[in-house]
Predict the 3D structure of the following.
Amino acid sequence: METHSCTEATLVGQTDLAGFRSEARQLLAHQVPPEEVQWQLQPPAEYTDPQSPLASRPRNVARAATAIVPASFTRLCEFVVLHRDPERFALLYRLLWRLVHEPGLRNAPLDADMQQAQHMAHAVRRDVHKMKANLRMRLVRDGAGNEVQLGSYEPAHHVMEAVAPWFSKRIPQAHWAIFTPDRSVRCEGGALLYGPGVPRAQLPGHAASDDAWLGCYERVFAPHA
């Protein structure tokens, strides 16, 4: 019976696109086929910001593939990695491998793998739109009397970090925070800081008191303040 060795590819967090591109580049360089790769997701640091080492990881796909892989696939990856399907990274690497070895795949929109990736990207785009349209913020005052806008949301996919910059341009208050079950984000004067998520049962709702909202804010971010 033929057996295959397994190569582990480690990513940090649920949306490590830069890590995926870096790992994929190395895997392609060593000609590791998709069926021999096991994708591992490690939890991210409790608090991260856009200037962290994670954010500066290499962002180029495999150099050998850059002349073959269409730009549309690179854009597709940006959405698919935000999907909640645990097999999304395996699917993307399989597609990348096939685009390199089967150039005709770019002209096969009915291919099963390509269709699955497109459907996942569409679901993520829809989730991004819903969060932008439906999130409601609560204006409260902290213990020092400063105004802070707080909101909670339960996205279907891992879209919070992708949507946060959009909110930073549209929320007038300099200080705000959004809580989701996966990750939370705080904005201080335009700078975004990502923190741990809040369990669904502990997310404050619109009927919650100001004290409940502030309590949630302090549990998530006060240790890092």
About this structure: Residues 112-134 form the longest helix (23 residues). Strands lie at 7-12, 37-42, 138-141, 147-152, 175-179, 183-188, 191-196.
